[in-house]
Amino acid sequence: MDLLALLNEKVFLGQEFLTWLWYCSEEEPSQELPDGRQVEIMLGDRLVLGPIMGQEGARVTVRGREVSLAEARQGLRRGKLVEGLRLGLIIDGEEFWLGLNAAELAISGLKTPASVPAEGGPEGLDGLVLERVALIDGAVRALEGLLVTFLRGRLADETGGELWARLMDWAQGQGAEA
Prior knowledge:
By secondary structure, the chain is an alpha+beta fold. The chain has one domain. It is 47% helix and 25% strand. Strands 1, 2, 3, 4, 5 and 6 form a 6-stranded antiparallel sheet that branches. Strand 1 and strand 2 form a beta hairpin. It is globular, with a radius of gyration of 18 Å. The N and C termini lie far apart (42 Å).
């Protein structure tokens, strides 16, 4: 099997992961990463829901911080899963924002905390660059840790274990609120 076919076959995990991140932002925002660090998850100003991979159906896009999530919640209740979102993470007291796409689990538009320019000419610039690289690395590692946490729960047994049951209960409850 070639890589593209394998990715297309497993893309549902990306949708489930992003849906789980939405769930966490509302129900369990503080998550412990496998390395022991804590990360707080926040839903950003963009959420795209679509049909489960392989099925037909319309997409629902919600934009803006103050926009009601009623339509997205209704889509969730009807079996749609998250295809893309804007996500906030607080890691070690620092706030990061990024976009995630379910199909490739690709990060876009990563906004890191502001770096303070150091004085001292080129050495200060080197330090600034290294600090930015460390911030980016920290955000990627936190996201990888969240994915590992999700997969451990999701793959606990054939049915997805307790994590999947909680997620499905939450999804059904979302439609009742809309």
